Amino acid sequence: MTMNRSRSEELYKEALQHIVGGVNSPSRSFKAVGGGAPVFMKKAHGAYFWDEDGNRYIDYLAAYGPIITGHAHPHVTAAIVEAARDGTLYGTPTEHEIAFARMIKEAIPSLDKVRFVNSGTEAVMTTIRVARAYTGRSKIIKFAGCYHGHSDLVLVAAGSGPSTLGVPDSAGVPGSIAQEVITVPFGDIAALEEAMQRWGDNVAAVMVEPIVGNFGMVMPKPGFLEALCAVTRKHGALVIYDEVITAFRFHYGAAQTYSGLPQADGAAASAGARDFAAVEPDLTALGKIIGGGLPIGAYGGRRDIMEQVAPLGPAYQAGTMAGNPASIRAGIACLEVLRQPGVYAELERLGAALADGIAAAARSRGVALTVNRIGGAFSTHFCDHPVTNYDEAQDTDGDMFARFFRLMLDQGICLAPSKYEAWFLTLAHTDEDVAYTIEAADRAFGQL
Ligand code: PMP
User: Fold this and answer.
1) Ligand 1 site, residue 149, Cβ cutoff 6 A
2) Which residues carry this modification: N6-(pyridoxal phosphate)lysine (predicted)?
3) Can you tell me the distance from the alpha carbon of 333 to that of 330, in angstroms, rounded to the nearest whole number?
4) Which of 32, 46, 111, 368 could disulfide-link 384, Cβ–Cβ 3.0 to 4.6 Å?
């Protein structure tokens, strides 16, 4: 039995007339799961969506990450309403910006100074400019499968090996720009060293998602981030962490301050045992969760590097909407919720229950499924091998994912329409939601 989504289908036809592909971001289209109308949502509250036909869904998309408190959380909503009453945009500094900068710096001490922007894309793009300004070098090294937004330099795919330059991943990105980017496999220190041997003198920065969220959830191998930082710095380049997904995701802080990471010797981490200095980046890009559901991005890092930015330094970055009072006050309210005791323990508890339940259901139905989980975020890969890098994430059954996605949707469960995206728990999800989702997954696996 499939749900009636006739209204979504009508709206999609209409949207196609006016909006490119009917969507304002390609990841929202159902292209990767067999095409057709995406679901047009009308309302979201707590852990649920209601679509234009009145169907209810449990939401694990969480807007691709920002909605960690659940939709329309009363504390965040109140902050947005108050901000709207006080006027939404000033074009002047406000006191809230200082409070928010202080909050973020306290949670992520590598940020001596920050700047607020409007999206993760902008944050990443600017860290690259600042790194280039600081080092006087032009090349960037990134890791295959990590997504860093849609600016030119990070829409570049690997050439034919770590010692070749990149090729444009999108029309409209000039080959000359792709020549500035080297892509190496995630987790592969030998490849990074090889690239640095060849291009190191002209590499401004190495950019990485320290815990990957864009080809599933992938933990770095023990020692990888330490080695990455060491190799990068040996060649005089800067380390940039893209923490757009990871900041405030697994604990009140970022991946760079996360003591749950395995240690280099393979032993489990005990809180505080990790040498954070060894994995602290020079620059960090933030976004998603820190806006509490409103548009935001931020970047920051070491004082001497950040002081390259205008008006103090020669690297230009600006924004009419940057640091707007509504996004800032929503962000403060969101972090106020997240710093309450027990918040991340609850996400961990729910995440473990759901991911373990889904893995067990797949096993009992004879479906090969690899589940990668960190706290309240996890990814499901239809394959019988581990997923630790982009090649392994690609080598999974996309058709099976597409069928699973639709079987779940028809049972009122909303996942991201891509085999690479994570499931995100929020503080609004309940044990009942988790139990229902496991039953639904079990039925779906039975039908695959
Ligand atoms: N970096 C990472 C790690 C991301 O996951 C994303 C978005 N998915 C971005 C940057 C870009 O952020 P935005 O979509 O806000 O521009």
Assistant:
1) yes
2) 288
3) 5
4) 368
